[in-house]
Amino acid sequence: MAHAGRTSAAPQIAFVFTGQGSQYANMGRELYTAHPRFRDILKRLDAYMRPYLPQPLLQVLFPQDGTASPIDDTGYTQPALFALQYALVDLWRSWGITPAGVMGHSVGEYAAACMAGVFSLEHGARLICEKVRKTSLQIFAYSEFCNFTFNCNMFLAR
Q1: Which CATH number fits domain 18-156: 1.20.1440.120, 3.40.366.10, 3.30.950.10, 3.50.50.60?
Q2: What angle do CA 122, 98, 96 make, to 5 degrees?
Q3: pTM of the shown model
Q4: I need a labelling partner for 42 at 20 to 30 A (CA). Which of 49, 89, 103, 151 fits?
Q5: Euclidean distance between CA atoms 130 and 111, whole angstroms
């Protein structure tokens, strides 16, 4: 763009990482099949996340025909999104597409921070798995509290 005889620098790009809600089974399958770099990152993340996920990441992302994926369960959604976001940006970077900045929403904040070098890929994988585990425990504890409160109120109302 030119203004009053001046030319501006080339436009810069930023990567924005999404939060939960964009997931679906088999997302990224074509990239996984066609691009070894993308595939290698997902395999590494699958290995990093195995100690923390009951079902392997790659089975969640790419279920066998006729098999349901638990990808809509938050315990799998967030690790899957983190993994796909990281692998996609790593692939873009290998093509020379680099951002001037990164930002994210919810789980996307973890992928953005990892891509910015705040923590390693292995630590990012563990961190997102621990986040969903602790969130699940908090939800369980809250639901048990609500159940207890409801039962107490029912008892007191007698």
Answers
A1: 3.40.366.10
A2: 105
A3: 0.80
A4: 103
A5: 14
